[in-house]
Write a structure and sequence with these properties.
Elements: E1 22-30, E2 51-52, E3 57-61, E4 115-123, E5 135-143, E6 166-171, H1 176-181, E7 189-196, E8 205-206
Parallel strand pairs: 1-6, 3-5
Antiparallel strand pairs: 1-7, 2-8, 3-6, 4-5, 4-7
C-alpha cells in the first residue's frame, strides 16, 4: 500500500524589500512668495526635469558635500593657508548622500519620481500640530545643502537641527504646502515620510 503525502503550501513571509521605507522628516515650503526669493517651483526646470500638474511636488535633501583632510580625516572649513600637496576629497568618494542622491548640477537623482506620504506631527518646538494634513507628494527637485542646514544631513542616518533624517521642501505653487500645513499656522513641521506606490499619488507628469 502506497502512502500518499500531501504537500501544503504555506504563505511566505514578506521579504524585507517589501517593507515600508520610513524616515523621520522635517517639512518646509518653497516657491514664489517665500522668504528666500525662490522662483516658481512647479516648472520643468526642477532638477528632475519635470513638474506635476495637477499633483503635489516636493524637493528633498541632497548630497552633503564635505571637505576632508587626507591625513587627519577631519572636516576643514577652509582651504586657505594649506600646503599645495595636501589631498582632499568630496562627496563623490564619501557616502554622504541623502535621499535625492546627487548634488546641484548633476541632473536627476535616484529619488526623482518616487512618491512619499508626508505626515506632519509637531511644530519646530515639538508641540502637537492641529490643522495639518497627511498628503502624498512626488519628488521632482533637490533641496540644496549649501547654506541650508535643514537639507545638509550627513547621509540618511544623520539628522538636521530638528532630528530629521530628511527634509521635504513642499512646493507652494502647486498647492502642496497649503495642503500639508493646512490651518496649522506653521511653515515648518516635523513628522514622518513613508515611501509609497505612486498609485497613491494623484497627478500628471509634465516635461515642458
Amino acid at each position: 500500500m502506497k502512502l500518499v503525502r500531501a504537500l501544503f503550501l504555506l504563505p511566505l513571509p514578506l521579504l524585507p524589500s517589501t517593507l515600508a521605507q520610513t524616515y523621520k522628516a522635517s517639512f518646509t515650503k518653497y516657491g514664489q512668495g517665500d522668504n528666500n526669493g525662490s522662483p516658481n517651483c512647479n516648472t520643468a526646470t526642477a532638477a528632475c526635469g519635470f513638474y506635476n500638474y495637477p499633483g503635489y511636488n516636493a524637493a528633498v535633501s541632497q548630497v552633503r558635500i564635505l571637505l576632508f583632510h587626507s591625513l587627519h580625516h577631519a572636516p576643514l572649513s577652509s582651504t586657505s593657508n594649506l600646503p599645495s600637496s595636501t589631498q582632499y576629497t568630496t562627496d563623490s568618494n564619501i557616502p554622504e548622500q541623502n535621499l535625492f542622491g546627487v548634488g546641484p548640477g548633476a541632473g536627476a537623482g535616484p529619488a526623482c519620481g518616487t512618491c512619499w506620504q508626508l505626515t506632519p506631527k509637531t511644530d519646530s518646538s515639538g508641540n502637537a500640530l492641529k490643522g495639518a494634513k497627511t498628503i502624498v507628494v512626488k519628488v521632482n527637485n533637490l533641496c540644496p545643502a549649501q547654506g541650508n542646514s535643514l537639507c545638509a544631513q550627513n547621509g540618511l542616518s544623520g539628522t538636521n537641527q530638528y532630528g530629521a533624517n530628511v527634509n521635504f521642501d513642499t512646493c507652494i505653487d502647486d498647492g502642496a504646502s497649503a495642503a500639508l500645513f493646512g490651518t496649522s499656522g506653521v511653515g515648518l513641521a516635523v513628522g514622518t515620510a513613508t515611501k509609497v506606490s505612486c498609485s497613491s499619488w494623484s497627478g500628471s507628469n509634465n516635461i515642458t
